[in-house]
Design goal:
Elements: H1 2-39, E1 48-52, E2 56-61, E3 64-74, E4 80-88
Antiparallel strand pairs: 1-2, 2-3, 3-4
Length: 93
């Protein structure tokens, strides 16, 4: 019985971690898409993500490409403040 309870708790915690992780990634993608719409002066509906990793997202739209990098800085109290920062693509004209 105790082993069964441990197994159920482990599965629940793992499932919760997966859901939270996916939600975080979706939020990051949405932040990048919104920023790209402004940075590229382009409607968000025509922006396409062409590379998507946890620390780097490359977007293309309206004939231009930008790469967004996740940059973190330490904050008081030992935490971190992270944000997505655009870095122009080498081939962007």
């Amino acid at each position: 019985m105790f082993k069964h309870l441990i197994l159920v708790a482990t599965v629940f915690i793992f499932s919760l971690a997966v859901v939270i992780g996916c939600g975080h990634e979706n939020a990051a993608t949405q932040q990048v898409m919104s920023a790209a719409a402004v940075d590229l002066s382009c409607d968000e509906s025509v922006i396409e993500i062409v590379k998507d990793t946890p620390l780097e997202k490359r977007v293309s739209g309206c004939g231009r490409t930008l790469t967004y990098m996740n940059k973190c800085n330490p904050t008081a109290g030992g935490g971190q403040a992270c944000r997505w920062k655009a870095v122009p693509d080498k081939n962007d004209k």
